[in-house]
Write a structure and sequence with these properties.
Distance between the termini: 83 Å
Number of helices: 4
InterPro entries: SecE_bac, SecE_sf, Translocase_SecE/Sec61-g
Oligomer: single chain
Number of strands: 0
Function: Essential subunit of the Sec protein translocation channel SecYEG. Clamps together the 2 halves of SecY. May contact the channel plug during translocation.
GO biological process, one term: protein secretion
Family: Belongs to the SecE/SEC61-gamma family.
Order of helices and strands: HHHH
Low-confidence stretches: none
Structural class: mainly alpha
Mean pLDDT: 80
Largest sheet: none
Subcellular location: Cell membrane; Membrane
Radius of gyration: 41 Å
Length: 116
């Protein structure tokens, strides 16, 4: 369908625009051929890198200042909250250990019964 439109458009343009298209194409070809320039053998001088960021020690000090600032914003739990949370963790850890020990005991006895 595109080819039919293209051919009908060319027919509608007539010979005058066709000549203009040919001239434009020739100019483009000449311009493309003229774009090729020989490679420059001139070497560029290395650029000096300006150090805009602070040194290692200054960055480390800034980091420590930010850490202290953030730690001051932390809302620390009270002693009572800490003891309560710790006791919950210990109780759950003990219960998980007892459960896994019980499952291990049952499975090991079952394997012994099968083997022998």
């Amino acid at each position: 369908m595109k080819t039919a439109k293209a051919s009908s458009n060319q027919a509608a343009k007539g010979p005058v625009t066709d000549q203009k298209d040919r001239k434009r194409d020739k100019r483009q070809k000449v311009a493309k051929a003229g774009d090729k320039k020989p490679a420059a053998s001139k070497k560029k001088a290395p650029r000096k890198v300006e150090s805009s960021k602070p040194g290692l020690w200054a960055r480390f000090q800034a980091y420590l200042r930010e850490v202290v600032y953030e730690l001051r914003k932390v809302v620390w739990p009270s002693r009572r909250q800490t003891i309560g949370s710790t006791s919950v963790v210990l109780v759950i850890a003990i219960l998980c250990g007892l459960f896994l020990g019980f499952v291990d005991l049952i499975l090991s006895r079952f394997v012994r019964l099968l083997i022998g």
